Amino acid sequence: MRAVIVITGSLLLLLGACNLTEKNLPTAASTADVIYFDGTIITVNDAQPNVEAVALKDGKILAVGTRADIEKQNKGATTQMINLGGKTMIPGFVDGHSHFVEVGTQSVSANLLPAPDGPVNAIPELQQALRDFMATSAIVKAHHIVVGMNYDNSQMVEQRHPTRQELDAVSTKIPIMISHQSGHIGVLNSKALEMAGISAATPNPPGGVIEREADGKTPNGVLQETAFFMAAPKLMPTFTPDELIAQIQGGEAHYIANGFTTAQDGKTSVATLKVLPEIARMGGFKIDVVSYADLVAVVDAGDEAILQGPLMSRSYTNHFRIGGVKLTLDGSPQGKTAWFTHPYFKVPSGQDKNYAGYPAFTDAKLHDWVNLAYKNNWQLLAHTNGDAAIDQLIRIVQDTAASYPPKDRRTVMIHGQLLRADQIPQIKELGIFPSEFPMHTFYWGDYYRESVVGPARAENISPTGWLLKSDMKFSIHSDAPVVFPDAMRLISTAVNRVTRSGYILGPKQRISPLVALKAMTIWPAYQHFEEATKGSIEVGKIADLVILSDNPLTVDHAKIIDIKVDETIKDGKVIYQRGLATTPPAINCATDTACGKALNAPAQFFVPAAIDD
């Protein structure tokens, strides 16, 4: 009898094991579409920083953990198993701040960047670049205007801006308009000045300067801030729908190739706010694009209705949404128009020794704009480079917020190049989120030391180390097309802070590679109110991922710049593989009335002044 009981017990145990095995087989709901394994997987989730495998299903992250557990729980007959081959997987990059549309504009403009990104380090080279562009550009042929972007006087041997006469040497018959790398200054030839209606009798507009020749009256071609912003729309051509689509999708391809799965269009123009939703509606985007409207332009145009509509949302519709509004409080440090509390180390020609830049708004006017944003619960991005502009932002936010119930608004301080240590507790208390631009340390760090603010103050530009020490989240951004949306250069500059000359600028402000990754993934996701769905490799989040050729946490810091983006994955689908061309979704505006109407945009659609470094 005992033997029978033993046998029966064994059979029960065997049957139980069989039943247990059946229960552990993946169900339809738990069967992964794909499982990634055999690589370094950096989740950017402090609670589970590294895992062996990631399972994806229906565009979301189904499971993270050990390979054995995931295969046991989530591998089915149809599951695709992808071996990472020792490469590194991270969350998709979230763009802290840039100008998505203008990156497309850059692709159809003359490249006037200095080395290492372009050919212009002297005015004769700038002139030749414009001539070469004129000879080959379909845009020049079709629209009879030459547009050049991103010259940088600080990197040219002449150490000054070109003049209208030097652009006239390229052409007096075709209008030429070029923009400074900051986007805050432009130069026009005589024909372009004439078309823009600028003459010796034209006064300086509020918040801008028309630079003059020796007689103090004749424009020399250089336009600062609002003077440039007002002239540019009068000159930009009305592109055809096909041209607009090609430019915007071409810009998106740059982000995708650099691992960005969310891009930002900061200070979106009125016309662009009508174009982007139409491209999205027709399935024209592969990644998410969040727009922050140019608040002043929208109100002045009487188009506030678009900010009250369904696109102003925390959710994307066809990869597009309006996240809020943007204001520009001052100018550019390297353009010497940013607003400081102390004078520039070397003041620009024609300015007195106390010149410290200037604001875009009076306190009273800024209060009106901030109040409008807060009243409507629109998230506000505020461009503030100089410490005086940051002081103004603090004053106005503090005053305005006192009139409303406490709310998590996540007002964003864009750039904050000259953010002072004493201002950090103030922005932290007010809930102002800093989005920093450490690329300045490489591109203009030497110029900051030698000309902009001097050696001492230059050490603490873009002070990410201070923010980290103050236990603040922050994002780091490229401000593309001021510089290319190069994700690995952005991480490298934040970690190393090495200038063009090899000088380490502000070693105390350096951050670790892991912190830099957080500042390009989970923290900018928080900045955009998207931390619950993006920014880390966690169960339930959107499957936005990047595969890198090496591990940025373990390679020599100096070699981070050499890491390549091998794949970009959006919503669980591979949208980029290194070495393969990115094919944008096809759009046919000719058969779509709404698209055709929206994309027959006015000349203001592409305005270099929308860039706001």
TrEMBL record:
First and last residue of the signal peptide: none
Keyword list, A-Z: Hydrolase
GO terms of molecular function: hydrolase activity, acting on carbon-nitrogen (but not peptide) bonds
UniProt protein name: Amidohydrolase family protein
Amidohydrolase domain segment(s): 80-576
Source organism of this protein record: Glaciimonas soli
Pfam families reported in the protein's UniProt record: Amidohydro_3
